[in-house]
């Protein structure tokens, strides 16, 4: 009896090794992986009289399984980055990517930002180093990634009257004619998904260039510049959540005349005619996602230009 058991053990061990070898071959791995990927699970249960044979098959599967799991064709191994913090609808990960839960419940993913837009006010001295509009961004709205359009829905520039009424501006709009030293009040509004509205910040940078016409064409001289940072603008909500039209709108404060930085050179100020004539305004609006815990992610940039006359 003991001889029979020994022979059975020898046979089952050999069968296990043979099965393990067959299962671990590249062709078998590919075939089995294809079945796994297409959801083909065949369960065959066969009753056997010899328990050790079942153990042999199980042992073979244990040997082959790591190979199958390690090398599924067409499915490279990915590692999900760990979570650094979660604040409201915003989750920040170890690789500096961010996910945002919208009011609809949809999830928007933003990769790590690799650009040069910074979440800080730019000094007038630095702004005045831009000597021509050619060195500024262009385009009414440029998102950092297409998915950012699901967060930011619209950016608009307005001319604000003394009584608080606003008129929207478009690139190339004429602001009006003003005496030297007078300026129109400019504000920006940003419409965003309502779930994210409390986590939006806006930086608005404005340049005013003196337009110089000559036989060689149009050239520019920087006259004034200003940058302001709206870290926590209060959102105003409108629309219907049931109809999917609800939005949060954030408005920047108006640019005051006494806040402008002067870019004129001393010799320019000696020429009164230099402060009259045609001026081009260039407004750049940077929109940020902020979690108020130190995390900031640029969402996109809007850029506009307008003309005015100093008379």
Number of strands: 16
Strand content: 35-45%
Compute the separation of the termini in Å. Answer: 117 Å
**What is the average of the pLDDT values?**
77
| H and E string | HHHEEEEHEEEEEEEEEEHEE
Which residues form runs of ≥5 with pLDDT under 50? 15-72
CATH first level of the largest domain:
Mainly Beta
Largest sheet: 7 strands, mixed
> What percentage of residues falls in helices of 4 or more residues?
10-25%
**Number of discrete domains:** 2
Structural class: alpha+beta
What coarse outline follows from CA principal-axis ratios? elongated
CATH topology of the largest domain: Immunoglobulin-like
Write a structural description:
There is one protein chain. The chain is of the alpha+beta class. The chain folds into two domains: 2-70, no CATH class; 116-310, Immunoglobulin-like, CATH 2.60.40. 20% of the residues lie in helices and 36% in strands. The protein has five helices and 16 strands. The protein has helices at 2-24, 26-37, 51-70, 124-127, 266-269, and strands at 83-87, 90-93, 98-101, 107-110, 142-143, 152-160, 166-169, 174-178, 185-192, 200-214, 217-230, 236-238, 247-251, 261-262, 277-290, 296-310. Strands 5, 8, 10, 11, 14, 15 and 16 form a seven-stranded mixed beta sheet that branches. It has a five-stranded antiparallel beta sheet with strand order 7-6-9-13-12, with no helix packed on it. Helix 1 runs parallel beside helix 3. The longest helix has 23 residues, at 2-24. The termini are far apart. The model is unreliable at 15-72 (pLDDT under 50).
